Amino acid sequence: MTDVTLDAFLAACRQLAEDAPARIDRAATPAEFADVRTQLVGRKQGRLADLMAQLATLPPDARREAGRAINEVKADIEQRLDAREAAVAAAARGAHAIDPSMPARRRWQGSLHPVTLVIDEIADIFRELGFTIALGPEAETEFYNFTALNFPADHPAMELHDTLYLANDTLLRTHTSPVQVRTLQQYAPPVRVLAPGNVYRRDFFDATHAPAFMQLEGLAIDEGISFVDLKATLSEFARRFYGGTRRVRFGPSYFPFVEPGAQMDVEVDLGDGKGTRWVEILGCGMVHPNVLDAAGIDSERYTGWAFGMGPARIAMSRHGIPDIRVLYDSDVRFLEQFAR
Ligand code: DAH
Question: Of 23, 96, 257, 300, which has the fewest CB atoms closer than 10 Å, so is most exposed?
């Protein structure tokens, strides 16, 4: 390598500094920037690398100034390269820039049905009161659906026009009460169960009835259970579910599988402008001794109470919904109000 003078070296540095901007400004793509970068300030080849090699051949007393000059040129070129490359990249992004004022596209998210949410909430309350979940079949026998529940043989509920019969003596259960009998056949008292499930009736679909709907059955059997326990437990349920201020009342009612039989009403505003009214949300009563006997439970020793409620009616009473049919509709605009 031929020796260079300090002046010649400084001149070469200036020349590089002068040539660089035009080269840099011609680059437009990432590949072009990489090329220019190598040509100008590459460590192993290119013009800066050549100058570095010359630096070592300068007389020792000249190297200091030469080193400062070359470092300045290198820093300038790199800064210019970085700035221009960033500007070109930003301009490219700008071609399909994001508009931050656009409303975000919402992620579609499913949720549980309002009736399911009500069932879950009721199940939580009864779980805290010591109840466990029990299930029974939807295709049920006459024995469990009617006979064991103390229905007399000519009870109107058993008529063809009220019940959907399947083959032989099976039918689509008209209520969840048969789960009482199945549970008592399987478990010895003390028993506390909550049985949710679908039930079926030959009913017209109107504002307050659906031919297939959910029920929640409750059963508590033990020694020494009285009507006081029934009233206290169901009142406590209402207090927890509706909050302390909602009024509830009990009144007499008839079901063949309880004696005495009752119903519980809650005061609700259905939001139809007609003010508040009493809505029956469940039937209940002391389990009839004939039911205990049919299930093989000693009715001299054990007593208990039961209830059956319709969670769709309860959802209506909770949310002020005047027509049950909207709960069976798939109109997402209605349903998604209840999404959690
Ligand atoms: N099974 C009744 C019905 O479907 C509801 C019912 C009433 C259930 C009283 C009960 C009860 O357990 O004690 O209409």
Answer: 96
Q: Is there an atom of ligand 1 within 6 Å of 284 CB?
A: yes
Ligand 1 touching residue 264 (CB < 6 A): no
| Closest residue to atom 4 of ligand 1, CA basis | 175
Gap from CA of 75 to ligand 1 centroid (Å): 88
> How would you write 31-88 as a 3-class SS string?
HHHHHHHHHHHCCCCCHHHHHHHHHCCCCHHHHHHHHHHHHHHHHHHHHHHHHHHHHH
Amino acid letter, residue 292: L
Q: Is the minimum distance from the CB of 283 to ligand 1 under 6 angstroms? A: yes
d(C-alpha 161, C-alpha 142), whole Å: 15
Counting from 1 in the atom list of ligand 1, the atom nearest the Cα of 199 is 4
Query: pLDDT tens digits for 131-141?
Result: 999 999 999 99
**Domain co-membership, 248 together with 137:** yes
Rounded to two decimals, the pTM is 0.69
In a domain, 105, yes or no: no
Q: Cα angle at 135 between 131 and 137, to 5 degrees?
A: 160
The token duo for 101 is 């004022």
Position in ligand 1 atom list of the atom nearest CA 217: 12
> What distance in angstroms lies between residue 270's CA and the mean position of ligand 1's atoms?
24
Let me know if residue 287 belongs to a domain.
Answer: yes
- Tell me the per-residue pLDDT of 126-166, one tens digit each, with 9 for 90 and over: 999 999 999 999 999 999 999 999 998 887 777 766 788 99
Shared domain check, 159 and 70: no
* Residue-range definition of the domain harbouring residue 159: 114-336
